[in-house]
Amino acid sequence: MTETSQIAGLDEAAAAEELARLARVLGAANTAYHGQDAPEISDAEYDALKRRNAAIEARFPALKRADSPSDLVGAAPAEGFQKVTHARAMMSLGNAFEDEDVADFDAGIRRYLGLSAEAPLAYTAEPKIDGLSLSLRYEGGRLVQAATRGDGAVGENVTGNARTISDIPQVLDGAPDVLEVRGEVYMAHEDFDALNARQETAGQKVFANPRNAAAGSLRQLDSKITAERPLRFFAYAWGDLSAPLADTQTGALMRLKDLGFSVNPLTATVASVADMIMHYKEIEAQRATLGYDIDGVVYKVDSLSYQERLGFRSTTPRWAIAHKFPAELAWTRLEAIDIQVGRTGALSPVARLTPVTVGGVVVSNATLHNEDYIAGRSATGEPIRGGKDIRVGDWVQVYRAGDVIPKVADVDLSKRPEDAVPYAFPTVCPECGSPAIREEGDAVRRCTGGLICPAQAVEKLKHFVSRAAFDIEGLGSKQVEQFYRDQWIAEPADIFTLRDRHGAGEDVLEAREGWGKKSADNLFAAIDDKRAIPLARLIFGLGIRHVGEAAASMLARHYRTWDQFSESVAQAAAQEGPAWEDLLAIDGVGQVMARALVTSFAGEAEAASIARLVAQLDVQPAEAPQTGDSPVAGKTVVFTGTLEKMTRAEAKARAEALGAKVSGSVSAKTDLLVAGPGAGSKAKKAADLGVETIDEDGWLTLIGDA
Fold first, then answer.
1. Torsion of CA 60, 65, 69, 70, to 10 degrees
2. Over the stretch 263-289, which tens digit does the pLDDT of each residue have?
3. If DSSP states are collapsed to H, E and C, what string results for 229-288?
4. 88 φ, ψ to 5°?
5. Which domains does the chain have, with CATH numbers?
6. Beta bridge partners of 619
7. Terminus-to-terminus CA distance in the chain, angstroms?
8. How confident is the model over 357-381, as pLDDT tens digits?
9. What are phi and psi of 547, to 5 degrees?
10. Are β-strands 232-241 and 329-341 bridged in parallel, bridged antiparallel, or unpaired?
């Protein structure tokens, strides 16, 4: 259901309730963004909620609330700052998201002014800087006051802080007696990176993006801190004036530039909707190379007399609109392709990008999936992106949604450098030099080095101590990397022999930077605490390819003890015979997982490593189901066809709870087949083998209240 149809389906009571919810959510978002410099939702989500609020108000105008988000600009000034009442309100801008919105904006202007579609009408088009709005008041040519936008009517007095920004002149020559200059405080990308590096070194808060960093820096109660932050300022408008600056927006900006203010050099005067959109696309194409963040293009009627006639709505001017960039897309330069080697030996290509802000987050890396994706084809050889490959130096489109890892979505071939060459995916591991092979049917190329590959060894160790595996308190990824680098641990068993191998282990560890007697004691106690480990956690902790948490639990329930599990998997190494068939018969285990299991235990080095680990552990058997007098305890059951009174998952869970083993295939070991409508080959095979077959009703009668 579309949002339009959802709103159309609201009655007055539901509409009032939804408007109340939106007022709460958007009010909190405004406070977080403008008042605390710590946004809680993305710009795209905020814009979508505001559009929903406006649409409901348009349908139910009588329900518009006194605290409607449509009437809010910014947030109330924070405590600790002196309040400043703006001589002229600092308003926000209406938004355009599609080219059609820009055409509607132009048509609305013409209707209001009584101009025909053919009448000349000029606009300015300038980048929308993603920073913090600031108003600077000059009297007699001297800066006397600087204020944030606040709630549009009342802002915060940040005069002392503004005086520390080099782009803001302290004295003007030839300015009107009263001049209020408005613009945006921002932080350049390279300055943002350097600031975050200093913050991290000092153990202080790092900023999510340059906008947050700029806002947090300007709104410091101590101007000495602001002076240490590399803030910049673009002027783009004015407020209170004792004399006009010019007759047009363009002329006024040039006057501000002559007075010593920085005016964005990408600002242009355009004469049509087509020109507006063309300039928008030109600016978007340069977005990643500007060195500062922008989130759209602002169009303003160029004639100031027209602006005066058009006037204002409650919170926005009629004569201006912001054409926003898609929040989750951005174009940038691909600077390099690096190969990372994972726990299972997978060679994963990573795009190193010229940093660009996407969805409120600075993105400098993105996944390239695999070698087929780079080459412009799917795993089956079909073209993707129209068959365009990805090369170092390319201009690429980056996609990010929520917490999803950024991806390279497209390539602009018109900007491809002449010397760009197709990317040659490595056939040897960049970490250990072992051959990197790609098995038939696998989309990923993998290092064959196993434990001799440092990347695989470290990632396996990180997985081993992860929360769902051994979860050893005090031994996280950083500690694993440090201990591996210092040759203290090379495989999981080394963790449990660490104290013995270093003699007075606590003393050795205490001597290390960042450790003390208490933290060393706690670590060794935590290691000892995990010597007794449930079978499912051990199986998962081994990091066997394709064996996740659910599969590890499933295997533990089936085999129950470590000895039974390890012996059965070892016996299945030939991929034939009873042990192999038993493994494949486990519901949820297919050929791929089964091969991964037997391969892990068949390799001499890996099998020896596992044996050394288990020798240090007390592996706890999986608990047997409390079956009581269950009629199916110990039996192997297979479900096939359509179950009508319960889902397949419910039937499987119920059978396992009663002590049955649920298999995915019929074999000579199958005791019972439960067949619903549509049963096919499994029912035929059961009949051929003489396996008892019942329908769903028979199954429910059999288990009864057991």
1. 50
2. 999 999 999 999 999 999 999 888 888
3. CCCEEEEEEEEEECCCCCCEHHHHHHHHHHCCCCCCCCCEEECCHHHHHHHHHHHHHHHH
4. -130, 130
5. 3-72 (1.10.287.610), 94-324 (3.30.470.30), 329-415 (2.40.50.140), 451-530 (1.10.150.20), 535-620 (1.10.150.20), 636-703 (3.40.50.10190)
6. 533
7. 44
8. 887 778 889 999 899 999 999 877 8
9. -105, 95
10. unpaired
* CA gap 59, 62 in Å, rounded: 9
User: Which segments of the chain have a pLDDT < 50?
Assistant: 1, 74-78, 503-505, 706
Nearest to 123 by CA among 246, 298, 305, 313: 298
User: Does residue 83 have an active-site annotation?
Assistant: no
User: Over the range 572-611, which residues count as b (16 or more CB within 10 Å of their CB) and which as e?
Assistant: bbeeeeebbebbbbbbebeeebbbebbebbbeeebeebbe
Residue 455 has what DSSP assignment? Answer: H
Distances from the Cα of 123 to the Cαs of 283, 321, 635, in angstroms?
16, 11, 79
pTM equals 0.51
Residue 343 tokens, joined: 């726990």
Q: Which of 353, 304, 301 is nearest to 332 (CA)?
A: 353
Q: Are strands 268-270 and 294-301 parallel, antiparallel or unpaired?
A: unpaired
Amino acid in position 70: S
Calpha distance 294→313 (Å, rounded): 25
What are 271's two structure tokens? 């004469």
Per annotation, catalytic residue among 83, 128, 645, 684: 128
Q: In what order do the strands lie in the sheet with 178-186?
A: 142-148, 132-139, 178-186, 232-241
The rounded distance, in Å, linking the Cα atoms of 240 and 252 is 14
Tokens linked to 356: 């660009």
